[in-house]
Every structure is written in structure tokens, then in C-alpha cells.
Design a protein that fits this description.
Blueprint (H helix, E strand, L loop, with lengths): L6 H7 E5 L5 E6 L41 E2 L2 E2 L6 H12 L2 H12 L1
Antiparallel strand pairs: 1-2, 3-4
């Protein structure tokens, strides 16, 4: 068996496109990446557990929907919940619809 991927097999994994300058770029990756990305990711990263294992040597302009293990700019990352967010989370966890409606009404004012 040959260890080389065929162009047809590659196109099942990766879609390409040209930008306005005529340069090629990767538009979509339809599979897992076991290695490095030497460039930017301008959209979303989705996966079985939505996990990036390794370092991100750049900016994240969006949400992190999970846990960060490691450091951000040399500082240990920690989750900070504002008092407002904590109150809303506790009300929602309790499932008290009347309290939730009162909280939302306060937010609207």
C-alpha cells in the first residue's frame, strides 16, 4: 500500500479557495489535524470535544467554551464570574422562573 494520499482523498479532507489577491488558502478542514498550523484560523474550531491540545501562539478573538489549561501571556488563567453572572447562574440552576423573570426585568431597566 502506498503511503501517499491521492488528490481525490486530499480534497475529501481539505477545501481550498483563492482570496481577493489570487492567493490560495485552506477554506475548510474536514478532519482532524494532528500537527501544527503555521498560520491563522479565522473561523471556528469544532471537534469531538472542541479541544485544542497544544499551544496557541497568537490571539483568540472569540469565546472559549471550555477550560484553559496553561497560561495566557505568562499568567495563569482563571475563571472570573461577576456578581451579576453568579446571581443569574444560581437563579437558572435553581429553576425558579419567578426569580429569573424578576432578574431579567431588572436587566431591562
Amino acid at each position: 500500500m502506498d503511503d501517499q494520499i491521492t488528490p481525490e482523498e486530499a480534497l475529501e479532507l481539505v477545501a481550498f479557495r483563492r482570496n481577493c489577491d489570487g492567493d490560495w488558502f485552506v477554506r475548510h478542514v474536514h478532519g482532524d489535524v494532528y500537527g501544527d498550523v503555521y498560520g491563522s484560523v479565522h473561523c471556528n474550531v469544532h471537534g469531538n470535544v472542541n479541544t485544542v491540545l497544544g499551544d496557541v501562539d497568537g490571539d483568540i478573538d472569540g469565546d472559549v467554551g471550555g477550560t484553559v489549561h496553561g497560561r495566557i501571556n505568562g499568567l495563569k488563567w482563571q475563571f472570573v464570574e461577576t456578581p451579576k453572572e453568579k446571581l443569574q447562574r444560581l437563579i437558572e440552576a435553581k429553576g425558579d422562573q419567578e426569580l429569573l423573570e424578576a432578574f431579567n426585568q431588572l436587566e431591562d431597566n
